[in-house]
Specification:
Helix content: 10-25%
Number of strands: 6
Shape: globular
Oligomer: single chain
CATH architecture: 2-Layer Sandwich
CATH superfamily: YggU-like
Structural class: alpha+beta
Low-confidence stretches: none
Order of helices and strands: EEEEHEEH
Strand content: 25-35%
CATH class: Alpha Beta
Mean pLDDT: 95
Number of domains: 1
Number of helices: 2
């Protein structure tokens, strides 16, 4: 089972996320243009949405936040996140179902 927004890398797993800040509730909305679409409660100011995204992913995937790294898209809606945790693609797909 594969997904266009999830891929294996040399150091772990990489997620391609389309982020929508300023929503009523943080949740997975579906997919958008090959990315996992997530709406976040936090507004996109002072890096708060990025921090909220990493915290939310940590909680959803049940891995420490220090194992989740924003590798690109700091100021963009499209973000690349790398997971440096010993988890499987199946675990990620199961816990981040669109």
């Amino acid at each position: 089972m594969t997904s266009p927004w999830l891929k294996q890398t040399d150091v772990g797993l990489e997620l391609s996320i389309y982020c929508q800040p300023g929503a009523k509730v943080s949740k997975i909305v579906g997919t958008h243009d090959g990315h996992l679409k997530i709406s976040l409660q936090q507004p996109a100011m002072d890096n708060r949405a990025n921090e909220a995204l990493l915290q939310w992913l940590s909680k959803q995937l049940r891995i420490p936040q220090r194992q989740i790294h924003l590798i690109s898209g700091q100021a963009s809606k499209v973000k690349r996140i790398e997971l440096w945790a010993p988890i499987s693609m199946e675990h990620v797909l199961e816990n981040l179902k669109p």
